[in-house]
Fold:
Amino acid sequence: GAVVSQHPSRVICKSGTSVKIECRSLDFQATTMFWYRQFPKQSLMLMATSNEGSKATYEQGVEKDKFLINHASLTLSTLTVTSAHPEDSSFYICSASPGSNQPQHFGDGTRLSIL
Amino acid sequence: QQPVQSPQAVILREGEDAVINCSSSKALYSVHWYRQKHGEAPVFLMILLKGGEQKGHEKISASFNEKKQQSSLYLTASQLSYSGTYFCGTEYTGANNLFFGTGTRLTVIP
Structure:
């Protein structure tokens, strides 16, 4: 089955640090990947759609300069949380689909803790 | 754009049935259903693409009422492994981006 790998699984760092999270589709190509954020006991909130070879599409209220997305190839998207602060602490999950009308497959998520 | 799920939480004994509903305020292109266990990523259950379509996966099935902008997930003869939070993911435009519902926490007890 389709596999999506996300790395790292856990990050703890000081306020002001920038953190990069990688999302890879291991056995299929994905022209689009998706980044979600999830707070404890809440739903997944779509942050942005990562588009291979072009700019990401951000949802309303998501700061594009804060959450930098790069989709350099058909199998890799990265999310960089720039100058992270404690309020950025959350569970970040990426997903990708082999094509339209296909399921989204999720990475294992990254738990980000900013001290 | 977030769809609303009901109930918010439900507790079942093994073998009992449950229905989880997902309602959207906008017209739907498709509905996906996922189950998430604590601290883990969501796991895909099924996708419904057409109005009125019903799909099944073992003892879990779902329906999609396009006119009512609703979908329901049916769990029959529940097992302990069914415990988790269920989310519907709604797609509005065919662009593959999903907006997840408010979630339903299901607990199955022996």
About this structure: The mean pLDDT of chain A is 93. Chain A touches chain B at residues 32, 34, 36, 42-46, 49, 93, 95, 97, 100-109 (CB under 8 Å).
